[in-house]
Amino acid sequence: MDTLVGLLPIIAMFAVMWFFIIRPAQKRQKNTAQMQNSLKRGDKIITVGGLHGKIDAVDDSTIFVVVADGTRLQFERVAVGRVVSE
């Protein structure tokens, strides 16, 4: 019985860590992966490096982005930080 009482604080700390740290991080990761898989031509994006552009073409693992001066750049899908909705 004493060992169960001794393990109770450790179990409680794990539960708190799960609900406040691990679970929200998993949800963010799932939402980011879903966003990156649903990219399509014409979406306005911001890369993780801060580059703003518009998607010109989409491949299996890469996207082609047109920036302000008409330059066409190739990026991995995972480099997209967010889609800008206007």
Explain the layout of strands and helices.
Elements: H1 2-37, E1 44-47, E2 52-58, E3 62-66, E4 72-76, E5 80-84
Antiparallel strand pairs: 1-2, 1-5, 2-3, 3-4
Brief description of this entry?
Its main location: membrane. With 86 residues, this protein is of the alpha+beta class.
What does the model show?
- 6% of the residues are buried.
- With 86 residues, the protein is of the alpha+beta class.
- Strand 2 (52-58) and strand 3 form a beta hairpin.
- The protein is 42% helix and 30% strand.
- It has one domain (1-83): SH3 type barrels (Roll), CATH 2.30.30.
- Strands 4-3-2-1-5 form a five-stranded antiparallel β-sheet.
- The protein has one helix at 2-37, and strands at residues 44-47, 52-58, 62-66, 72-76, 80-84.
- The longest helix has 36 residues, at 2-37.
- One of its GO terms (cellular component) is plasma membrane.
- Its main location: membrane.
- It is found in: Cell membrane.
- This is Preprotein translocase subunit YajC.
- The chain crosses the membrane at residues 6-25.
